[in-house]
């Protein structure tokens, strides 16, 4: 089974940022309101994600590291309307097959916590007591230590760091109600408090996307027959041709989808842009039963039941908003 995990890891764990993504998703699924990330050497040496979520029961700790163990889907029907970010139950198993993983958790503030460790193929299933407040800490050391071929594909520390910084920012924009902290090589990089008011949310967007984006951004919020699109889009005056200032969320899940990308691009091009990269932070909310997120292991893509309706809604909503500020 450990070999199967390593094969699966090829799909889920491409680089440090893919580990961070899975760990953050688990923390959010666990209801955390505070997530602290620590990395060293671009995540290759160390990634540590600590949260204040619900924690994992002592008896479930070893199980959490085994393949297809997920606490999030009880029945097959649930696959039809997946509300949590994780649901495949293979992230921790995959990560632990190609790194040294320590999972420490506690489900209550009253008791002490428990810890379980796995290193490559040698799973050390024994539980050890470990002090931990309510919540979970996952520590991943020496990524790809036992798969040198995979390790060779990693880029410089700086490049890997930029990838994981990007992943954290994407998550930070998806959950304004959660505080995020990042430390790199033992130095604080950012610490974003929970944002509940509109002013606080706009402050976070400014922190993540830069004040220049927020200063000129157009706020939109459009709802029509069960679909809602809200967020911030750059005005024509915003002349920053950066592909990375494109954030799109479907029901809180960051996605990069052809259909969505096409609808957004078309709206921009139609109204005002000619070959420029549009910049936006947009949230689409749809009935969960009309969207399939189980398309790809990394879950960047989605499939809508009614493509045309979603495409037209995004296009016409943006078109309408942008046309009002046409230069
Ligand atoms: P999935 O998220 O697809 O269920 P994972 O391998 O990512 O699978 O995690 C396995 C299980 O471990 C989860 O279903 C969950 O029960 C538990 N788990 C992992 N991380 C956390 C966390 N930070 N807090 C609470 N439970 C967690
Ligand atoms: Mg998960």
At a glance:
By secondary structure, this protein is α+β, with helices and mostly antiparallel strands.
Could you walk me through the main structural features you see in this protein, from its secondary elements to its overall organization?
One of its GO terms (molecular function) is ATP binding. One of its GO terms (biological process) is mismatch repair. This protein is an alpha+beta fold. The chain has ten helices and 15 strands. Strand 7 and strand 8 form a beta hairpin. Helix 1 crosses helix 4 and helix 2 packs parallel to helix 6. The N and C termini lie far apart (60 Å). About 2% of the residues have low confidence. Magnesium ion binds next to helix 2.
Describe the structure using short key phrases:
single chain, about 325 residues, alpha+beta, Heat Shock Protein 90, Ribosomal Protein S5, domain 2, 2 domains, eight-stranded mixed beta sheet, five-stranded mixed beta sheet, 15 strands, binds adenosine-5'-diphosphate, binds magnesium ion
Instruction: Strand order, main sheet: write it out.
Output: 5-4-3-6-2-1-7-8
* Global Rg: 21 Å
| CATH structural class of the largest domain | Alpha Beta
Please provide the count of β strands. 15
Low-confidence spans: 75-82
Q: Might you state the CATH topology name of the largest domain? A: Heat Shock Protein 90
Query: How much of the residues is beta strand, in percent?
Result: 25-35%
Protein name: DNA mismatch repair protein MutL
Keywords: DNA damage, DNA repair
GO molecular function, one term: ATP-dependent DNA damage sensor activity
Domain DNA mismatch repair protein S5: 205-323
């Amino acid at each position: 089974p450990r070999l199967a995990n390593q094969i699966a890891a090829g799909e889920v764990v491409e680089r440090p940022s893919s580990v961070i993504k899975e760990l953050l998703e688990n923390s959010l699924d666990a209801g955390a309101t505070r997530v602290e990330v620590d990395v060293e050497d671009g995540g290759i040496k160390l990634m540590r994600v600590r949260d204040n979520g619900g924690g994992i029961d002592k008896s479930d700790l070893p199980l959490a590291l085994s393949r297809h163990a997920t606490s999030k889907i009880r029945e097959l029907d649930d696959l039809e309307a997946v509300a949590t970010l994780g649901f495949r139950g293979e992230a921790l198993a995959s990560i632990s097959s190609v790194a040294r993983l320590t999972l420490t958790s506690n489900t209550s503030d009253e008791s002490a916590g428990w810890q379980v460790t796995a290193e490559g193929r040698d799973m050390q299933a024994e539980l050890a007591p470990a002090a931990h407040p309510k919540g979970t800490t996952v520590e991943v050391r020496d990524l790809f230590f036992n798969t040198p071929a995979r390790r060779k594909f990693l880029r410089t520390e700086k490049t890997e760091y930029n990838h994981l910084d990007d992943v954290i920012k994407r998550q930070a924009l998806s959950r304004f109600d959660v505080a995020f902290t990042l430390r790199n090589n033992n130095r604080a990089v950012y610490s974003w408090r929970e944002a509940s008011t509109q002013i606080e949310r706009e402050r976070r967007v400014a922190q993540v996307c830069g004040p220049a984006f927020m200063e000129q951004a157009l706020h939109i919020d459009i709802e029509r027959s069960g679909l809602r699109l809200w967020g911030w889009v750059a005005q024509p005056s915003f002349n920053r041709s950066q592909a990375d200032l494109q954030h799109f969320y479907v029901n809180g899940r960051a996605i990069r989808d052809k259909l969505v990308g096409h609808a957004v691009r078309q709206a921009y091009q139609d109204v005002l842009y000619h070959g420029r990269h549009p910049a936006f932070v947009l949230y689409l909310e749809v009935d969960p039963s009309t969207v399939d997120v189980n398309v790809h292991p990394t879950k960047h893509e989605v499939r809508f039941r009614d493509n045309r309706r979603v495409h037209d809604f995004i296009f016409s909503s943006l078109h309408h908003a942008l046309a009002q500020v046409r230069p």
